[in-house]
């Protein structure tokens, strides 16, 4: 049966569904309802099913014999139980029909056996055969359960063979696409392995559990009182026994392998329960819960807050307004990352409050879970970390995915370089473009072995088992990430590791190491420690992030009649550049309630409207306000006169090129903003409305939401999903104090 170039279009084709069970019936119904093809025919040994289907309008007709049905059909869909495929194909081969214009596909959940059956029947794999498997279903069976929307937004896996003709593949793809399905291709063996784990094993367990409990003496009570858990777990035990009997016969090997792995996991849990081993139980349950909550995003190689990252978010910011109220912005991102890292490597249990439940910090948390650390939470900012000691991390099963988080990648590069195992650090599109040579080069000087992509970009492949030596490193740029990376590597290095920076940068690593009882010598812009010590678990109270508070500081300064109180904000002197710069511009900022919490200074910050004026930003403040410049540029656009920033080339390698992204956006709003290689010159003036591209950079998106408070027209900000990396509740909080932000969500289906 050769594939002739004259296959009819789907709209001119007659589709024959052989086997009118739930799947076959649903396919027929979907095609009919969508008028996707010329005619839908069916064939089934059970004439009653055919009559019902005809009566319900699920099919157009059912010819008197299989031969007549096949003769009329252009596309044959074999929807019989999987062990019936072999004899059906043999029957088909014996028919007196012209195969040259026909395509054959099937819906079975094991694919290897379809190929074997086809080889047996045809003596080879025909060009017109394209095996398929819709990943959709229900525990209900039979044509009465047919559902025309069953495949809508579901995946259909095709496993074309090397012999499958392209036209036949396109035809089957079109068939499923017409039913609303997303079609993808997979290798046959891989399909059967994956399905054994994701579908066949869970069905086996459900059948077994129900049968075991049903056989017990007190089964009446068990079923009478079995509420949610039992019902949820065993729904699929009501599935078609014949179909599943066939699946376990057909995919025996892969199912047995999956069952072996499951038995091993079950044994571990059995041991843990019988010996009261809480740590193992907590480990299994917290890891499983996180995986279950986030598996969709993990599968898509995205960060972990599913509702945000599965969609394209656009902000629509209405112009004008005042900003008034008391708020607490989420926890500090830098400190959140470090709390997980040091907590994991400490001896004992570290309790953290105020943890930032944003994607960046969650990526770090997940990475340490992937290395065997038991971490409970986060729950309302509370995280409990069961430290494994400096040498207790385990090799993760795959690459550690760090999403958008540059801090996670750079700091972890230092830690990973000293482990006994190999590990790969990967990230999203933006992180994959960011320079890692700044940490990789000095780590190599310490003896690390790290492979990167060209120009030192991620992924980082870090080889384990190297012994590191302390270095004395004069840093070419002021970067807390580079400093922290080397200090963390230094925990494992022989001798002293010291760094000298060209300017003072945030010192959270040094402070937190001291909090964990690890001595660090700090003097101005020099920090040093010696390897060989250990960390002792502690409690950490993470203050609100001054980088997130900065958006409201500028908002309240530029919007008329504003008065906002930002509570419990971290005012570590290495982070307060934004306050100093705004005050130099004439902002009305007062600090109250100053105290030190867990080694970090905090205060309530009150900001009221003020007429700002342009300034030349002092060089020494640049590293102390490095993350706040996007919103400071908005302040400059609202100020009287010119603001000049120099010496800030680092802004070009943040989550986006922040000098260019901000200059483009401000110019679109009509502001005179002139980008410079290492800074920007902004002349304050009126702002109009525009559509702005945030380039997926959280701080650019939030900065333009602030700008709307002084714009004369609506600002539309595109690509805002990544706001969730640092400030998951930004829109709600902003709107609660007077912003008028709306979010438009487009679900990503690619
Ligand atoms: C950070 C350091 C800064 C900052 C980043 C967080 C940290 O980066 O921009 O958001 O937590 O150490 P650099 O070290 O690259 O300046």
UniProtKB/TrEMBL annotation:
Q: Which organism is it from?
A: Kistimonas scapharcae
Entry's PROSITE patterns? EPSP_SYNTHASE_1, EPSP_SYNTHASE_2, PDH_ADH
Q: Which UniProt keywords apply?
A: Amino-acid biosynthesis, Aromatic amino acid biosynthesis, Cytoplasm, Oxidoreductase, Transferase
Cellular location(s): Cytoplasm
The encoding gene is aroA
Q: Which residues form the Prephenate/arogenate dehydrogenase domain?
A: 13-303
Indicate the enzyme's highest-level EC class. transferase
Active site at 627 (proton acceptor)
Residues that hold phosphoenolpyruvate according to the record: 333, 406, 434, 481, 658, 699
Cited InterPro entries:
6-PGluconate_DH-like_C_sf, Enolpyruvate_Tfrase_dom, Enolpyruvate_Tfrase_sf, EPSP_synthase, EPSP_synthase_CS, NAD(P)-bd_dom_sf, PDH_C, PDH_N
UniProt pathway annotation: Metabolic intermediate biosynthesis; chorismate biosynthesis; chorismate from D-erythrose 4-phosphate and phosphoenolpyruvate: step 6/7
Q: Which reaction does it catalyse?
A: 3-phosphoshikimate + phosphoenolpyruvate = 5-O-(1-carboxyvinyl)-3-phosphoshikimate + phosphate
Q: Gene3D superfamilies from the xrefs?
A: 6-phosphogluconate dehydrogenase C-terminal like domain (1.10.3660.10), Enolpyruvate transferase domain (3.65.10.10), NAD(P)-binding Rossmann-like Domain (3.40.50.720)
Matching entries from Pfam families are given as: EPSP_synthase (PF00275), PDH_C (PF20463), PDH_N (PF02153)
**Descriptive protein name:** 3-phosphoshikimate 1-carboxyvinyltransferase
């Amino acid at each position: 049966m050769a594939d002739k170039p004259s296959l009819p279009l789907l709209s001119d084709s007659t589709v024959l569904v052989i086997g009118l069970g739930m799947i076959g019936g649903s396919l027929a119904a979907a095609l009919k309802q969508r008028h996707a093809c010329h005619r839908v025919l069916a064939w089934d040994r059970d004439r009653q099913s055919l009559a019902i289907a005809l009566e319900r309008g699920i099919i157009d007709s059912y010819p008197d014999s299989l031969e007549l049905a096949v003769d009329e059909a252009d596309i044959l869909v074999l929807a019989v139980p999987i062990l019936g495929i072999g004899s059906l194909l043999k029957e088909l081969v014996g028919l007196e029909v012209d195969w040259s214009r026909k395509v054959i596909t099937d819906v079975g959940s094991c694919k290897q056996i379809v190929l074997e059956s086809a080889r047996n029947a045809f003596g080879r794999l025909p060009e017109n055969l394209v095996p398929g498997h819709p990943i959709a279903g229900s525990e209900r069976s039979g044509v009465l359960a047919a559902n025309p929307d069953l495949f809508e937004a579901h995946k259909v896996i095709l496993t074309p063979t090397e012999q499958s003709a392209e036209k036949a593949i396109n035809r089957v793809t079109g068939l499923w696409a017409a039913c609303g399905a997303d079609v993808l291709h997979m290798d046959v063996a891989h399909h059967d392995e994956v399905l054994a784990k994701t579908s066949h094993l869970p069905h086996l367990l459900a059948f077994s559990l129900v049968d075991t409990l049903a056989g017990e003496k007190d089964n009446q009570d068990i079923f009478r009182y079995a509420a949610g858990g039992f019902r949820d777990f065993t729904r699929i035990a009501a599935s078609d026994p014949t179909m599943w009997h066939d699946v376990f016969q057909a995919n025996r090997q892969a199912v047995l392998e999956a069952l072996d792995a499951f038995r091993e996991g079950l044994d571990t849990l059995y041991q843990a329960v019988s010996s009261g081993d809480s740590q193992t139980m907590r480990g299994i349950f917290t890891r499983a819960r996180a995986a279950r909550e986030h598996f969709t995003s993990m599968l898509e190689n995205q960060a972990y807050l599913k509702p945000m990252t599965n969609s394209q978010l656009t902000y629509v910011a209405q112009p004008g307004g005042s900003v008034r109220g008391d708020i607490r912005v989420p926890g500090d991102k830098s400190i959140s990352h470090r709390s997980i890292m040091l907590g994991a490597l400490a001896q004992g249990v570290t309790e953290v409050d105020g943890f930032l439940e944003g994607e960046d910090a969650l990526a770090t948390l997940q990475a340490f879970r992937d290395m065997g650390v038991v971490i409970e939470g986060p729950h309302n900012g509370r995280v409990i970390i069961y430290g494994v000691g400096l040498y207790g991390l385990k090799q993760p099963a795959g690459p550690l995915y760090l999403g958008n988080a540059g801090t996670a990648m750079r700091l972890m590069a230092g830690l990973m370089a000293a482990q006994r195992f190999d590990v790969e650090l990967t990230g999203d599109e933006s992180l994959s473009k960011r320079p890692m040579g700044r940490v990789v080069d000095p780590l190599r000087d310490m003896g690390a072995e790290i492979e990167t992509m060209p120009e030192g970009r991620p992924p980082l492949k870090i080889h384990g088992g190297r012994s590191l030596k302390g270095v004395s490193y004069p840093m070419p740029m002021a970067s807390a990430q580079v400093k922290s990376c080397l200090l963390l590597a230094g925990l494992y290095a022989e001798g002293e590791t010291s760094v000298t920076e060209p300017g003072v940068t945030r010192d959270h690593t040094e402070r937190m190491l001291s909090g964990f009882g690890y001595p660090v010598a700090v003097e101005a812009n020099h920090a040093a420690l010696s390897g060989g010590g250990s960390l002792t678990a502690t409690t950490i109270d993470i203050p609100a992030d001054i980088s997130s508070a900065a958006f409201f500081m500028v908002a309240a300064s530029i919007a008329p009649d504003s008065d906002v109180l930002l509570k419990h904000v971290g005012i570590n002197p290495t982070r307060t550049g934004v306050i100093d710069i705004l005050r130099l511009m004439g902002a009305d900022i007062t600090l109250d309630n100053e105290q030190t919490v867990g080694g970090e200074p905090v205060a309530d910050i009150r900001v009221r409207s003020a007429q700002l004026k342009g300034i030349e930003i002092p060089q020494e403040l640049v590293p102390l306000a490095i993350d706040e410049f996007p919103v400071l540029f908005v302040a400059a656009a609202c100020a009287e006169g010119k603001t000049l920033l120099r010496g800030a080339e680092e802004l070009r390698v943040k989550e986006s090129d922040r000098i260019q992204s901000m200059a483009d956006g401000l110019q679109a709003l009509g502001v005179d903003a002139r980008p410079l290689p290492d800074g920007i010159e902004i002349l304050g003036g009126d702002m109009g409305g525009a559509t702005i591209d945030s380039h997926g950079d959280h701080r650019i998106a939030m900065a333009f939401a602030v700008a709307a408070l002084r714009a004369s027209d609506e600002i539309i900000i595109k690509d805002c999903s990544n706001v969730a990396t640092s400030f998951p509740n930004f829109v709600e909080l902003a709107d609660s104090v007077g912003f008028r932000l709306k979010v438009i969500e487009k679900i990503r289906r690619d």
